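Quick one, tokens below. Sequence please?
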């Protein structure tokens, strides 16, 4: 009797779960039917899930969730579901897409609808409220089916879009507990580990994702990028070639492949193709491909020493796409190399009007020589505003510290900024290295403190070549301990044979001493 009761309970739960899934589908149908593409109420809807301002030709400035309307709609949906249960083809969105029975396809349909609506919204407040609505939808979906990792992945992506990184991490980790090899969750966790300086761990996670999705060009491209960052050029080259075999017309992959060839050639590696020929081939297929234009301009500027050609290419792209912020960073670097600091500053400030908190644009101010920034107040205001918006952004903290040190000569604020960042993330090797360098620059007796920071970084991250190089610099230049310096220089070069700074410093140290090279290599 006990077993029969358990079996009957299982059948009832299965039937209830099926009804709840159908109820969720119908609820999503009502969402799409009661909200027009611009976020305005449709005339056929008697009750809306959103409350908004009266009818207007423009989207409302603010959209607010209405829980009471949601509950009323759920009750109405229950009655409609009972009436229309015989006809399974009623599960369609307002876009005419048939609702599948699969939860994963449910996510794909909802993603398509929400992305379509987002592109049609005009104000930032409306987009923010659409994200809030999306979060509410997926939270309800997760409540109805907590064993589906797709909902956790979508919730994590939405949390990342609003810079709630810790919350996003918890969603992705929960998805991985349900599905340990979920490729999207693995790649997103890998991205967070990369930001924390754990590039090898990030690469291992993406490698796991690639075994689950061997034909996913996005995963292959991410894995190739991380291998390039780890100086595994042969592996990166192989992955890009595999990705191009699967999708030969993917312009982004082709552009990244050409950029890899450029890096390999600059470091003395033999490449299967000439980078310039690949860039020209891509631009012949699509002359307006911005990623390729930027990479090609960087190649001309840095490898071919064709500053004029790179500047012409980027200026032409800016005229065709004045609102594309990605072009302005390499263009500003071209102006800086030509010592046209005023035009470089104008390019960066214009880009920051498009993306006010872009870390790469803000970091470009560090390339200016001291005293060459004309509007120093506006530049510092931009950096401080971005730091207030993203207080947990480690890279931005480093940018702010160096800006205060090099341009405002505020050593105390620079050290305080880095101490706060280290306190938030004590295991981040990049922050540790930056903090040690700032201590060297800001204090007359900073070598001892910097050495302690670098030794801790080497202890925590023994496979990081830059940490070894920094510690070697301290040993050689400040403590005059050439034996210890040689150990760490050699370790850095063993980890990264193309590390030019470590090679240069090591050669200078060897040339200035009578110690035999072979003994140091041992």
């Amino acid at each position: 009797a006990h077993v029969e009761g358990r079996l009957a309970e299982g059948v009832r739960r299965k039937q209830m779960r099926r009804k709840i899934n159908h109820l969720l589908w119908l609820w999503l149908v009502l969402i799409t039917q009661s909200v027009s593409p611009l976020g305005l109420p449709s005339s056929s809807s008697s009750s809306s899930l959103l409350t908004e301002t009266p009818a207007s030709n423009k989207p409302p400035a603010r959209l607010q969730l209405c829980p009471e309307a949601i509950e009323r709609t759920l009750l109405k949906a229950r009655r409609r579901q009972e009436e229309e249960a015989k006809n399974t083809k009623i599960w369609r969105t307002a876009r005419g897409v048939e609702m599948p029975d699969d939860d994963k396809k449910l996510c794909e349909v909802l993603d398509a609808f929400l992305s379509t609506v987002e592109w049609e919204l005009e104000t930032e407040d409306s987009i923010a409220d659409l994200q809030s609505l999306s979060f509410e939808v997926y939270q309800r979906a997760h409540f109805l089916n907590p064993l589906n990792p797709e909902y956790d992945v979508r919730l994590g992506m939405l949390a990342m879009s609003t810079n709630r990184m810790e919350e996003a991490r918890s969603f992705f980790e929960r998805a991985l507990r349900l599905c340990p090899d979920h490729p999207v969750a693995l790649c997103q966790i890998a991205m967070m580990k990369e930001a924390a300086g754990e590039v090898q761990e990030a690469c291992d996670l993406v490698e796991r994702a690639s075994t689950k999705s061997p034909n996913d060009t996005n995963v292959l491209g991410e894995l190739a990028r991380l291998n390039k960052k780890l100086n595994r050029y042969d592996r990166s080259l192989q992955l890009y070639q595999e990705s191009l075999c699967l999708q030969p017309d993917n312009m982004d992959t082709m552009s990244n492949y050409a950029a890899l060839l450029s890096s390999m050639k600059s470091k003395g590696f033999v490449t299967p193709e000439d980078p310039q020929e690949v860039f020209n081939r891509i631009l012949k297929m699509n002359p307006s491909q911005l990623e390729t234009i930027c990479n090609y301009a960087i190649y001309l500027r840095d490898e071919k020493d064709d500053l004029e050609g790179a500047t012409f290419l980027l200026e032409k792209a800016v005229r065709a796409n004045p609102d594309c912020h990605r072009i302005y960073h390499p263009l500003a670097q071209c102006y800086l190399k030509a010592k046209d600091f005023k035009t470089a500053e104008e390019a960066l400030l214009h880009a920051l009007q498009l993306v006010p908190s872009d870390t790469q644009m803000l970091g470009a101010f560090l390339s200016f020589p001291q005293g060459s920034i004309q509007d120093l107040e506006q530049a510092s205001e931009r950096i401080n505003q971005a730091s207030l918006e993203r207080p947990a952004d480690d890279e931005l903290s480093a940018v702010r510290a160096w800006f205060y040190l090099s341009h405002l000569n505020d050593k105390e604020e620079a050290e305080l900024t880095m101490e706060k960042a280290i306190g938030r993330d004590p295991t981040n090797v990049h922050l540790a290295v930056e903090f040690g360098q700032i201590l060297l620059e800001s204090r007359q007796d900073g070598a001892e403190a910097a050495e302690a920071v670098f030794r801790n970084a080497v202890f925590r991250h023994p496979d990081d070549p830059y940490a070894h190089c920094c510690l070697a610099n301290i040993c050689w230049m400040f403590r005059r301990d050439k034996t210890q310096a040689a150990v760490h220089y050699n370790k850095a070069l063993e980890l990264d044979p193309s590390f030019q700074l470590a090679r240069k410093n090591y050669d200078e140290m060897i040339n200035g001493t009578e110690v035999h090279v072979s003994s140091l290599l041992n």
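Confidence is low (pLDDT under 50) at residues 32-66, 84-101, 117-123, 514-522. Strands lie at 50-51, 64-65.
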